[in-house]
Amino acid sequence: MKKILYYLFLISSAIFCGCSFFAKQSAANYYIVEGIKEEKGNNWSAALQDYTKALNLDPHIAGGYALRGHAKAKLHDSMGARVDFYTAIHNSPEDANTYNLMGLSELEENMPDSALIHFNKALSLKKDFAYAFNNKSYVEYEKYDSLDAFADNSKSILLDPSNSWAYVYRGLMKLEFHHDSIGALEDFNIAITKPNLYERAYFEKGRLSIYMGQKDLGCSYLHKAKDLGYTEADKAIQQYCNHQQN
């Protein structure tokens, strides 16, 4: 740090080159953050544009290719996604999140076995990776592997109790494997209180409330899920709440 300050003060060319370099870094990071914000709103085209801008400014920015690969997968560009993921692995072969995002992208392509391999790879690189445990649990749930699904879900919650997704999946597993409506509703209620809210919590709570005979309450939760951007909620509203205003 002292050397950097020394050259900034004494060498005018270093002032310009250094400022330009840090400005590019700062701008690249800005677009990565903006892309992640767009993801949360399911604006995958906008996220893709932001990640591309970041990579144009800094081709070596951490996570850039993996994030763009995942965005491409969400937009059904599987070939483009693979190219970006292989570039990400080439640049940072020990980055656990690259393999986690690869697994999520393979779920988009209905490739659960490949996704499971990559979630396991992520966990081999980062043993306390809560999101990888959560994603692995989801695949196991879809494959009706209840023991492993519950075990990995529990690890995810233990490592990151703030993860709304994990409680939603646990609630779904309680319904699927144990027919435990009360336990599932408790998990959906917990999920709603978490700061990184997964809007599907309101959707599942709405459907379950309707199933339990509380139609008006359930429809209010479906509308809440729709307002938060959960696209499947609109179909459920049409199916269950067509007597109410949409």
Written overview of the protein:
The protein is mainly α. It has a domain at 1-127: Serine Threonine Protein Phosphatase 5, Tetratricopeptide repeat, CATH 1.25.40. Helices cover 78% and strands 0% of the residues. Helix 6 (96-108) runs antiparallel to helix 7 (112-125), helix 9 (146-159) runs antiparallel to helix 10 (164-178) and helix 11 (181-193) runs antiparallel to helix 12 (200-211). The longest helix has 29 residues, at 12-40. Residues 1-22 have low confidence and may be disordered.
Topology diagram in text:
Blueprint (H helix, E strand, L loop, with lengths): L1 H9 L1 H29 L3 H14 L6 H11 L3 H14 L4 H13 L3 H14 L4 H13 L3 H14 L4 H15 L2 H13 L6 H12 L3 H13 L4 H9 L6
Helix pairs in contact: 1-2, 2-3, 3-4, 4-5, 4-6, 5-6, 6-7, 6-8, 7-8, 8-9, 8-10, 9-10, 10-11, 11-12, 12-13, 13-14
